Amino acid sequence: MVLLLIVNLAALAQHRIAGFVKDSLSRKVLVGAHIIDSTSMKVVTTDNTGFFSINVKHTSRLSVSFVGYEVQGLKLKTLADTLVEILLSPDNTIDEVVITHNKRHTHSVASLSNIELQQLPSLGAKPDVMKAIQLLPGIQSQNEGTSTILVRGGNPGENLYLFDNVALIYVNHLGGFTSVFNPDIINSIKVYKGGFPASYGGKLSSIVDIAQREGNANGLKGAFSIGITDASFVAEGPTKLKNTTFIVTGRKTLIDPIFALASMLSGGGDYILSYGFHDINGKFT
C-alpha cells in the first residue's frame, strides 16, 4: 500500500516548465506565442521578452503555436522543474492566391428622366431643359432667368452638349433665355460634372448628354399644349414598315405679335420689328 501511495503521489505531482519561444532562423523572441496543455486545456502566452511559465503534470502534453509558424510539440523528459528554449520554424507558405479586379470608372454624373423633366413647374407650355439642369447640384445660371449654365465655376463655352451623340454648338434661343431642346422628345439627360473621359473632347467643365426617346410602337398618339410663351405638339407611333416607329415634335412662340405690336406703337418708322422662333424635332427608329 505504501508503494501504491508513492506511485499515486508521483503521478499527481506538478512541476513547472518555463522558457523562451524564439524564431529558429533569426533567434528573435516571439511575443504572444501560445503554450497549450492539451490534457488540462490550460493555455499561457509568452510575454514581451518571449518568456512563459506553466505548471504541468507528468502526463501532460504540451504544444507551442504562433501565427505563421509550425506547431511544435514539447515532450516532458523529467519530473523536475525545467527551463527550455523552444525554436519555432516559419510556416507561412500558402497556395497561390490570384486577385483580379476590373477598374470601375466613377464619374460625377447627375441625371434627369423624361418624367422628372415634365413634372417641373414652368412659365411656358413645357419646362425648359437648360433651366431644369440648373436645379442640379454644382450648376448655376450665368444670369438670372437665362438658360446658360456654369458648372462648378466654369464658363458657358466650356460645356459640351450632345444630342443623340451629335455635338451642338449653340443651344439657346432669345439670346440665352430659352433652350433649343423640346422636352417632348427628351428621353433622359446626363450631366457629367467632372472626371469624364478624354474621348469626349477638350471641354473643361461638363458634358451634357441628351438622348431622344423613340416613338410609341403600340399605336398612334399625340398631344397639344399651349402656354404663355409658346405652343407645342407631339405625334408618334408605328409606321407601315415592320419594326419601325417615328416621333415628331414641334413648338412655336406666341410672343411674335406682341413684339410686332410694341414696334408699331413705338413709332419706329417704316419697319416693324418682331422676334420669335420655332423648333421641329423628329426621330425615325
Could you write a compact summary of the structure shown?
The chain is mainly beta and 285 residues long. The protein has 4 helices and 20 strands. The model has no long low-confidence stretch (mean pLDDT 84).
How are the SSEs placed, and which strands pair?
Blueprint: H1 2-12, E1 14-23, E2 34-37, E3 42-45, E4 51-57, E5 62-65, E6 72-74, E7 82-88, E8 109-113, H2 114-118, H3 129-133, E9 139-141, E10 149-151, E11 159-163, E12 166-168, E13 172-173, E14 178-179, E15 186-192, E16 206-212, E17 221-226, E18 230-238, E19 245-253, H4 256-265, E20 278-284
Parallel strand pairs: 1-7, 11-16
Antiparallel strand pairs: 1-4, 2-3, 2-5, 5-6, 8-15, 9-10, 11-12, 13-14, 15-16, 17-18, 18-19, 19-20
Task: Give an overview of the whole structure.
The chain has helices at residues 2-12, 114-118, 129-133, 256-265, and strands at 14-23, 34-37, 42-45, 51-57, 62-65, 72-74, 82-88, 109-113, 139-141, 149-151, 159-163, 166-168, 172-173, 178-179, 186-192, 206-212, 221-226, 230-238, 245-253, 278-284. The chain folds into 3 domains: 2-88, Immunoglobulin-like; 109-212, Beta Complex (Ferric Hydroxamate Uptake Protein, Chain A, domain 1); 221-284, no CATH class. The radius of gyration is 42 Å and the shape is rod-shaped. By secondary structure, it is mainly beta. The strands form 6 sheets. A 5-stranded mixed beta sheet has the order 8-15-16-11-12. Strands 3-2-5-6 form a 4-stranded antiparallel beta sheet, with no helix packed on it.
